[in-house]
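Let us practice reading a record.
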Amino acid sequence: MNRSSRKVAGATGQRRLVNPMSVGAVIVIVALIAVITANFVHKHNDKQEAVAAVAPPAVFTPDGRLHFGTGDTLVTVITDFQCPICHQFETTTGPTLTDLVNSGQVSADYDTVAVLDGLSKDNYSSRAANAGVCVAVANKDAWLDFSKRLFENQPAENGPGLTDDRLIQIAADAGVTGPDLADCVHSSRYAGFVKSHSRQAITAGLTHVPVVKVGDVTLENLTPDGLRAAIARATSAAK
């Protein structure tokens, strides 16, 4: 978030925004980013084994993202469903971005990677990303709601993730049901794509999540005001 954000760690290990205008949180956030980035690098730096490229399902862009809105992409969001700061961004600023997309003001690409399996006991990052692909293939329009609900139910770090049955229930809550969806989640149907896409992101230089870009500029102020201001600057510069 921005320099005036504050987060606290509860007993469960999850983070939640207490006051988006409080002072001093930059120290906490920078420390948390450092921890997550260190975990990220540690888990992947020594795993340079070749991963066969897997083409994304047709509902995705050729580079493995979900595009929402009409016209060229202005905002790009790279997240991991196990990432607590991604949770914060989606909770505080996600609704603003969704409103801007739904009102036709911007187009956005959502890029879900699975790079934080080390923060759970059962590869939750990869399993959740696979479930997200299952939902997108079944009903892309429901994906944003599914993503929001998944972050709302984000499990604590270093423990078990949500079960596959719970992921299926959250998909149902977002309006996506049926035996094929359940089979897709239970069988990890898109695990190959998730692994390939995540490895490609790391190879391309991804070192932490979330990453939010407006145009080619990485957003530092992840609050709703920060997002709106960056969009206004980018829109003005394009005229």
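A brief commentary: Strands lie at 7-9, 15-17, 66-68, 75-79, 108-112, 211-214, 217-218.
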